[in-house]
Amino acid sequence: MSALSSTRLPEDWSVAPGALAGRVVIVTGATGGLGGETAKAAIRAGATVVITGRKVRALEKRYDELVALGGNEPVIHPLDLESATPADYAALAEGIESEFGRLDGIVHAAAHFNELTPIAMHKPDDWLRAMQVNVSAPFALTQACMPLLTRADDSAVVFVLDDPELLSRAHWGGYGVSKAAVERMAAVLHAENGRGPMRVHTLLPMPMRTALRRAAYYGENTLEKPLPTVAADAIVYLLSGAGADARGAVLDLRPIH
């Protein structure tokens, strides 16, 4: 049972020009499908975006794509969530404070998923990797940045979930368990910050055309699924002032049957 209530994107909402003007936002997993689209959507909405990822060349390619959009210049900060230490997260927070003097949002779009496998056959290293990237890293990054986030007039931390009904089935292993932990972490963080300037949000996307989806559904034609653009726009909603209405809730983007 979820500890968070569920909400929907307002039907009349669309990304307004300047919705994130003046805001500084970190996007993890910025070289991936959802992270990349989120960085683009945030740039279009007027934010300054700090993109993180472990592959410098892929980050540089994403940087060029973001610059071509013509908004605020993005910032590259290489960060390997599998091996990063508390000192690495502190250095990121200190760098942002030094350069911008503020931080208004974090989008935890990075995720580790290897393959569907029974727990009896689950490689321990892969289990630990899923917990590290999907749970421990978002905790450590959020904690390091909380002094900046709570100093802002209005800030948002966005955690990305996955379908809980699906992930409790066989073979979802460390990834499924980690996403349940993320939901509970968000609930605890919201309970501790429910009235302060830092808002806590969770997003439950619809099935999307991403590398993770391709890895999990071998027989599916992933190209039939929508690109992560709708989910990225929904994240802009959560990062903006309008997202206050969804504070402490799961923003559910799945189709209503």
TrEMBL record:
Signal peptide residue numbers: none
Presence of keyword Magnesium: no
SUPFAM superfamilies, per database record: NAD(P)-binding Rossmann-fold domains
Family designation: Belongs to the short-chain dehydrogenases/reductases (SDR) family.
Keyword Acyltransferase: no
Keywords: Oxidoreductase
InterPro entries cross-referenced by the UniProt entry: NAD(P)-bd_dom_sf, Sc_DH/Rdtase_CS, SDR_fam
Protein origin, superkingdom: Bacteria
A Pfam family assignment: adh_short
Record PROSITE patterns: ADH_SHORT
Annotated TM spans: none
The protein's name: NAD(P)-dependent dehydrogenase (Short-subunit alcohol dehydrogenase family)
Gene3D superfamilies hit by this protein: NAD(P)-binding Rossmann-like Domain
